[in-house]
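Because discrete structure vocabularies remain unfamiliar, we reproduce here a specimen of the format, pairing a chain with its fold in token form:
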Amino acid sequence: MSNRPVYIIDGSRTPFIKARGKPGPFTPVDLAVQCGRPLLMRQPFAPHQFDQVILGCVNVIADEMNPARVAALRLGMGEDMVAFTVQINCGSGMQSIDTAYRYIQNSTSDLILAGGAEALSHAPLVFNRQAVGWYARLFGARGLGARLAAFAAFRPSMLTPVIGLERGLTDPITDLNMGQTAELVSHLFHITRRQADEYAAESQQRLAKAQAEGLLRDEVEPAFARDGTVFDHDDGVRPDSTAESLAKLKPAFERPWGKVTPGNSSQITDGASWVILASEDAVKEHKLTPKAVIVDSEWSALDPSVMGLGPVYCSTALLKRHGLALSDIELWELNEAFAAQVLGCLAAWEDAEFCRDALGLDKPAGRIPRDRINADGGAIGAGHPVGASGNRIVLHLVNAMKRLGFKRGIATECIGGGQGGAMLIETV
């Protein structure tokens, strides 16, 4: 088994488009193609020269089974292009990078397109269980009498649909939805509503500033809908957000005293992101200019009821393995599922008891300065298309480190179901 360096060469993403109560203009594959086409067109090699395509996607729609393969074909990468889809909930877009990283590191591949795509606005409405049982009885009925009896059992309430996304964001083991797990994290680490709202407002303002200054221009490719509408920026950003304005919103999950509101949570959005990974041989063969090298990655698991703390576990394990401290990481991207969850992670690293009992440290890990985490905002402003977010934070971390002149960074995220993923990256 070899241990070759794995380089991040380039990447792009679509704008993250806020869901507005109806299916958006793009499916997951549409989104993957919209940002994948310009990315492939600017490379000095042909699309068919990739070894494989890996795409993260959680809510795969029925018309696009194995969206990685559908996207590869629509991108003109050839009929013989191997492509597969990975799913680890919120970590799917990072899992695609990690899987590609392992393939290249172990000399199985040299050039891989790894991405994530999600269209949460296309999440299906499904029948409730009572309706499913009624349909089963009706279709299984034999004879007129049995059919009439089945029809007679129909109730109007059976027509009430179940929102698939709502069930998908509820943990089946704890029966807590993701917002409730963030409430639990905020309770454990004494995060106040004011703190959550202040963090959310700052995140919105950072993203708005990055957009205004053109800092995302090299990362975001415009998406063109069939009706001619152009989407050229993350359209859920609210630059006028303040802690005072956010304080007017009611808690979403635990009324009346909850800390998590629509204003300090990530938005439901559609989006896609890709990165190109290459071996040193591929870099030389195609005369590529790497942006960064993937040093290592780590996945951790924990109690699903506090899934928001996942980044603390996996990032700490990564730091331990390389003999690094929090202060050795110059820039962080920590996906903002909820403001309270991000603040809970930061507080956990400063908590002596937690660091001792949960992380095996002999003292608190330390404090991450606010200007070194999510420098250009995050999912609270941009949104969280779950299959794409892990890919976006890696792509943006690389671009932000290059812009700011930093060498070492970590991209990390919590994962529904009680997991966390982290990737240690150094610029080249």
